[in-house]
Amino acid sequence: MGLYRIYIDEAGNHDLTHADDPNQRFLSLTGVILESRHTLEVVQPEMDQIKREFFQSDPDTPIIFHRKEMVNRVPPFHALRDPQTEQAFNGRLLTCLARWDYRAITVVIDKKAHRDQYQMWHYHPYHYCLAVLLERFVLHLHYGSNRGDVMVESRGRIEDEKLKDSYRRLYRNGTDKIAVERWQERVTSEELKIKPKSANITGLQLADLVAHPSRREILIENQLISDDRQVFGDQINAILRQSKYLRNRQTGEIRGYGKKLLP
pLDDT tens digit string along 56-105? Predict the structure, then answer.
């Protein structure tokens, strides 16, 4: 029996107030599932090595991978302004993303469609995505006869408390699709682990790196956005499709398993 943790990253705005705004219409949660020993012995030291090799840093101020800062090449990622450095870094990162052993799940919600479909019932978009994401995590643990827990990045004191309450309800009550007995058999704690970005959590940084590319691909596949640019994230998505997304165990299907669009 292995011990696993799913690290969850958010991309987009979670409130329904601006659901009609095309720039704020979609929210996604991406979870990456890592086995604890693999994280400790492989992913963490290799990610730290990449940071040391490409980015100078104060020894008391750790480098923390954050996709938005990296794309904009702002310090401490200003070394990426050099095309040769950027090419070398991208190659190293893609190699690691392909070699590391993890499974990815992305759940995207169209908040406008959610609001319009459920006029009398507006399940909080973030919590709705979280429930659907964790159902897949629990089933993954069950089919592998493993156990695990859940970590998210802090979103602020009030939001964190609401999220902890929502998570406890899932653990204590289960869902329509996952009975509480199975939930509690496979998940090790009713307490959600929440860490700030400054904590330098390897799994949260991995989730951050793949979350936006995965979200973008799902929106394009479902014709919810039009974007024919060729970007670095396309290469990340190719790796996810090849071997990282959660799949149907019989058919290998990704849609509905590693990729899920709501409502």
Answer: 777 788 999 999 999 999 999 999 999 999 999 999 999 999 999 999 99
Q: Identity (one letter) of the amino acid at 20?
A: D
The CATH number of 3-262 is: 3.30.420.10
Per-residue pLDDT reduced to its tens digit, 208-243: 999 999 999 999 999 999 888 889 999 999 999 999
What is the distance between the alpha carbons of residues 206 and 239, in angstroms, rounded to a whole number?
13
Strands (E), 14-116: 26-35, 103-110
The C-alpha angle with vertex 83 and arms to 52 and 59, in degrees rounded to 5, equals: 20
What ranges do the domains of the chain cover?
3-262
Give the distance between the most distant pair of CA atoms in the chain.
55
Q: What's the rounded Cα separation, in Å, for the pair 155 and 69?
A: 18
